Amino acid sequence: MKWSKLSASMVLPVAMLVFHPLGCSVLYTCEDDGTCAEVPEGWTGYHFLHEVDDARAAAERCGDGAEPTSYFMHPPPQGPQKCRACACDPLDVQKGCPLPKLECWDGSRCDAGIKLKTNVSVERCELSYWNEDSNGVPFDELSGNARCRISEAAPPEINAIEVKAIDLPTWGGRLDLCDAASSTATDLICIQAPGHGRACPSGWDHSLEAYTTGADSRTCSACSCEARCDGGGYTFSDYCYQAEPAGKLKDVDATGACLSVSYSWPSYGIKPRQPQLSTQAKGGELRGTLEPQGPVTFCCRPAE
Predict the structure, then answer these.
(1) Given CB 3.0 to 4.6 Å as the disulfide criterion, which of 222, 229, 248, 283 pairs with 97?
(2) Among 206, 203, 207, residue whose Cα is nearest residue 32
(3) pTM higher than 0.90, yes or no?
(4) What burial letters (b/e) apply to 147-185, b meaning 16+ CB within 10 Å?
């Protein structure tokens, strides 16, 4: 058999050729009549391609032991995609919701006058006396009107559940290119050219389009947990009955507001209302895109 030249001016004898599994040199493939044909103009090859359905699967080594060159097919759609949802971790509360600080003064202002004592016990009504201030002012010298306010406690702190994985689709397939066929029976022998939409030369009827790579800038924004305390405050009453307020006077629950509490008894009851922890997870928003790069067309036929 006479072999095609590796150069335009030299015919190599059979003994000097490194034979391809198809029966021709690495640079050529055989026609039906046994002669060897050069790669069509505008194309490069020949290569063996192995189609892989899952682009994340491990690559099989080439027949000569080398790692294949991978090309990627079917990029994920650019439509709406979501990151895995962020969440607050109920088992990782750094700081909960303490009772807000309560202060009362006799008179018409919240920052002047006789400071009144406020006895507070968690989850029950506790009795106090309007005249038990640090100066021991008699009850009959008090005005009968108190001004009370609560100050905002330090905000609660709760950690977010870390979202380490991005639940986003990846490439739909992969082509592994080798110069020597692997053991996979589905290998194709192919030629290639840059770009997509190219018509395959005669005899190379199996067309595949792929990309050399893709610039994947997709990330999910960091998760955080926004926490607040809702509903904390105090209920004032004339007295306490079985640990509950009796003869209710007023609720003091507006943070920072100076509220008036009128009284006619020397004693009064205060029952706290424990604030409730409320959380809302933030973050986990998709940013960036996957942009395919390096389009390539492969034209193939079975490697028999």
Answers:
(1) 229
(2) 203
(3) no
(4) bbbbeebeebebebbebeebebebbebbbbbbbbbbeee
Torsion angle, alpha carbons of 234, 240, 241, 244, to 10: 10
Tell me the β-bridge partners of 235. Answer: 251, 271
pLDDT digits (tens, 9 = 90+) for 94-149: 777 888 888 888 777 887 777 777 778 777 888 777 665 556 666 666 777 788 88
Contact status, residue 188 vs residue 68, Cβ threshold 8 Å: no
Give SS3 for 15. Answer: helix
Instruction: Give me the residues of the chain with pLDDT under 70, please.
Output: 1-37, 78-81, 130-141, 162-167, 182-187, 254, 303-304
Sheet with 101-106, strands from edge to edge, namely 114-116, 101-106, 145-151, 259-262
- Domains of the chain, residue spans: 14-80+172-212+295-302, 87-159+224-282
Q: H helices of 21-141, where?
A: none
Distance from C-alpha of 170 to C-alpha of 175, rounded to nearest angstrom: 15
Q: Tokens 């899952």 label which residue?
A: 54
Give the Å distances, CA to CA, from 62 to 51, 183, 224, 239: 13, 8, 46, 88
The number of angstroms, rounded, from the C-alpha of 285 to the middle of its chain's C-alpha atoms is 6
| Residue 60 DSSP class | P
Task: Give per-residue pLDDT as tens, 239-265.
Answer: 788 878 887 778 887 677 788 887 777
- Cα distances from 183 to residues 18, 20, 28, 67, in angstroms, run 20, 15, 21, 14
